[in-house]
Amino acid sequence: MEAEYTLAFTTGILGGFGHCIGMCGPLIAAYTVSGSSSAVNHFSVTNRFLPHLFYNAGRITTYMFIGAMMGLAGSFINVAGRISGFQNTIMIIAGLIMIFMGLNISGITGGMGWLEKNNNLILKAGKNFLQGESLSRYYPLGALFGFLPCGLSYTVFMAASGTGNFLSGMFTMFFFGIGTLPSLLLFGFAASSISSRLRGMLYKATGVIVIVMGCLFILKGIRLYAQV
Amino acid sequence: MKSKVFLLAILSFSLFAVSVLGMEHNHPPSDADAKADCAINKGPCIKMIGSDNIQVEFNINPKPVKSMNDLLFTVLLKGEKQPVSDAGVSIDLTMPGMFMGVNKPLLKHVKDGRYEGRGALPVCPHGGKLWKAEVEVIREGKAASVSFLFEVD
């Protein structure tokens, strides 16, 4: 294994339990609690584990894509500069999704029925995305959130750009993503186990926390826009 | 109905708390309450490496120093009488209180004790702006280091 792959993997392992849980924890908690309100049986071990596997597969796919672009361009600044606006937008979108999830969980909007009343394809797709039963719907969610601006992944993107090669850049990010897996899967599994036991007001209060987290993400996204 | 009012009250209070606390304390907790000791945007910072009595001048350009920009890191080493040109110099860039991975721009000797290397500082979505540059100087098999804490725009 090349040195940069080992370094990327180690960075993922070390960063996973501190940095990644702090950054992605609210997102994981949001989709986990939101998912547990759907018809999917979250009491089985498989169903507590699979959503997070799909989510992380999507996230790592995005990392590999950006890593490949960084390696191909051989420049972190050029590629990061081009996608930074898009990443900040994703942060705001993530915040909005979390607010929708939180509203759904807390029952403030009376569930997602209001989405169905609107004969709009986008809104219906949104409802299926948020309340669907297919576990594979977490893959595009992970792929989307993989674009979220993250200082730790930026540092590894620098290493990917330093390889000056499409494949090496891609594999650098693959090993980084694999390194972050244990912590995020463990956190996700724990979140699933807890959320499936939440009942009544406690469950609704969790929805409120998700809404607040969503607002925080939007604020961060706006602040990042201001820095560009 | 009561539960909805209660939830909206919690939501309102939480939004207030987030907007006040989140905007005021928008950077990650730092280790040992680290504060900048180097005003990098005003010019180079100078410290001494004790045992060898080497003066270390640390600088970053262009100014103002911004994250997500192509940056030139410069270390100028001066001995008691002449520049130190025979050292191995490296910089380890870390963010106090937040693990940001390994970021070590490669520095090469250019001329008369001047070592240069290009790199970048990633943006912290949490709003952290404080960075630590640990300059390590290896000379005749002995390593010594000195740290500079600085803020970026």
For the sheet with most strands of chain A, the description reads: none
Figure out the total of helices of chain A: 9
Residue runs with pLDDT of under 50 for 5 or more positions of chain B: 19-30
What is the subunit arrangement here? heterodimer
Give, in order, the helices and strands of chain B. Answer: HEEEEEEEE
In helices, the fraction of residues of chain A equals over 70%
Average pLDDT over all residues of chain B: 83
SS-based class of chain B: alpha+beta
Write down the overall geometry of chain A: globular
Shape of chain B: elongated
The major sheet of chain B is characterized as: 5 strands, antiparallel
Characterization of the model:
The complex is a heterodimer of chains A (228) and B (153). With 228 residues, chain A is mainly alpha-helical. Chain A is 83% helix and 0% strand. Chain A has nine helices and no strands. In chain A, helix 1 (3-36) packs parallel to helix 3, helix 1 (3-36) packs across helix 9 (200-227) and helix 2 runs parallel beside helix 6 (138-145). The mean pLDDT of chain A is 82. Chain B is α+β, with helices and mostly antiparallel strands. Chain B is built from one helix and eight strands; from the N terminus they run H-E-E-E-E-E-E-E-E. Chain B has one helix at residues 2-24; strands spanning 45-49, 54-61, 71-78, 88-94, 108-111, 114-119, 130-139, 142-151. Chain B starts with a helix and ends with a strand.
